[in-house]
């Protein structure tokens, strides 16, 4: 769903041959694959989702049937520090594409990742942060509130909250980075039907606390109900969203 965001950033920063990209929280590796297809050498790190990293390796590592990546592609389970190979060239682009600004505390830990990644990059390297746009321009925001309401018995810290205008700038400032431009990109969430939409949203992990609190069946039921306003006549589900990105520079 975030492909337009990746494309906009890569186009703006002229990602291509000669780019050495470090992707923080790379997940299943789609953003890395797109950069690699433009000729970039990519390294992805993630410490949270081994099953998604397995998909990233399948997509990107040399020797797999679907790879379009270069031979120097790396997928690392762990932190940026674990991607610091002896004698490795400094990175020229760092990305943190997982959007912040829809859950309370969802930027926690990002500062630590940036602190580890910054020394691995050249001076003045662009660091890209991503966030949700204003709630009134993100249809998915209303659906995410279901997760908050159902998880409330756990008093989970990861509750829904509206994105704030300076979320990304505050993260950059805490990490000692210098803001150097931003942009907004339309990223609609589209699904073939309600069942696909439920599966897709559950796969983000944003509903995990709700499932723990009330059970899978209840979450599926209320998520399906919340999605009904976005169901079109042909049965597809379409939710317009706007995401924001910030480009900051390393000192």
Automatic annotation (TrEMBL):
InterPro entries: SAM-dependent_MTases_sf (IPR029063). GO terms for biological process: methylation. It comes from the Bacteria. GO terms for molecular function: methyltransferase activity. The keyword Methyltransferase applies. The lineage of its organism: Bacteria, Bacillati, Actinomycetota, Actinomycetes, Kitasatosporales. It comes from Streptomyces leeuwenhoekii. Keywords: Methyltransferase, Transferase. This is Methyltransferase type 11.
